[in-house]
User: Fold this.
Amino acid sequence: MREISYHIVANCPTPSCGMPILDDHSAPWCTACRMRFTETFQRQLPGLQEGKAKARAEKAARRGVEVICEGCGARIRSSAGLDSLGFREITCPNCRQHRTLPLKWGYRITYWVFLCLYVSGFVMAIQSGRDQRGLLVEIWGVFILVSLLLRAILKDFKILYQRRTTG
Assistant:
């Protein structure tokens, strides 16, 4: 039978506790007094650092998107890149077909909120009867921003519609 040996890395920094902390300690707090360690103290614990690295790797693996390629039918699991409007884009490694995924909910809600704010602000500016020259600058600024938002929203609707009709 193999003997397991642990080494004391440090003692609990809480003056009233002082419990020895072993090299396999994986919690960010002292198990005796339940006081949370500072970030600098946590960096000294090898067991805790290994656990954090493992959790980061698992989180990165979950972040990947899994889709089925429409061209070759292969399952693709990769991290999707974002384009300038927030759409996730994936390229199949087998057939090199490019696929754009729908917006995430955060982007979609943000675009709708901004669209509503810009349109309501534009309507209020017209109703207030301000200086026409200043209003013209605002009209062009709002027009550019609203056109970008509408482009993103319509592209999202198109992708969602195609996804629902093709299965």
In short: The CA atoms of residues 29 and 36 lie 4 Å apart. Residues 132-166 form the longest helix (35 residues). The beta strands are 8-11, 20-22, 65-68, 75-78, 81-82, 88-91, 98-101. The chain is about 50% helix and 15% strand.
